[in-house]
Amino acid sequence: QLQLQESGPGLVKPSETLSLTCTVSGGPIIISDYYWGWIRQPPGKGLEYIGSSFYTGSASYSPSLRSRVTISVDTSKTQFSLRLSSVTAADTAVYYCARHHHHGWVDSWGQGTLVTVSS
Amino acid sequence: QSVLTQPPSVSAAPGQKVTISCSGSRSNIGDNYISWYQQLPGTVPKLLIYETIKRPSGIPDRFSGSKSGTSATLAITGLQTADEADYYCGTWDGSLSAHVFGSGTKVTVL
Fold this sequence. Notes:
The complex is a heterodimer of chains A (119) and B (110). Chain A has no helices and eleven strands. In chain A, strands 2, 4, 5, 6, 9, 10 and 11 form a seven-stranded mixed β-sheet that branches. Chain B is mainly beta and 110 residues long. In chain B, strands 1, 3, 4, 7, 8 and 9 form a six-stranded mixed β-sheet that branches. Chain B has a three-stranded antiparallel β-sheet with strand order 2-6-5, with no helix packed on it. In chain B, strand 3 and strand 4 form a beta hairpin. The radius of gyration of chain B is 13 Å and the shape is globular. At the A-B interface, strand 5, strand 9 and strand 10 of A face strand 3, strand 7 and strand 8 of B.
C-alpha cells in the first residue's frame, strides 16, 4: 500500500520560502505513468493544484504559482519536495503531497500538513 | 477563480439521486479524462472516478461519471447520509499545461 507523508515547518514568515518534503513508502518512486505533486487547500476553500514532477525531474506548475514554485524528486531518498518562495498570508493552507497519473487522476494522497504564513 | 465550474451545493433526500455538473472548455474537459473526488469533513480527498467513467476498487456503483462535450457529470444514486461531503472534479488543461480542479460542490442529504 503506497503511503505518502509530508514533513516541514508549520509556520513560515511572510516573504520567506516554504519548504516541504514528502516521503514515499510502500511503493516505488521510479514509476512510469505517474507524477509526484503538491496540492493545497486554504482553510474552508477548495483544492488548488500547485505542480508536479516526473521522477526524471520533468515538472509542470500551476500558471498562477509558476514564478515562485520548484518541485524536485530525489529518487535515492524516495522523497520529493516543494519550495514556494515569497510567501504571503494567502499561501496559508493545508498542503497535500500526492501521486497522480499522467492522465490526470490523483490516486494517492498524503495526510496533509497545515502551513500558516504569519509573522 | 476555478477553471472548472461546479454548483456550490446540491441536496436530496436519502435514497434519491443527485447529479453534480462540472463545466469547462475544450482544452480541459473536452480533450481529457475527468476524475472526481470525495472529501468528507476533516479528511483527505478520495478518488471516486477516474478516466471519466471508471471506479477504483471499493467504490460502489452508486457513483458514476459521464462526459458530454465540455461538461462532465457525477451522479450519486441511492443517496446515503454517509455521502454528505464536498465533491471535486479534476482534469488536465492543455492550454495551461497544468492539472485543474473544480470549485467544489457540497452535497447535503436532507
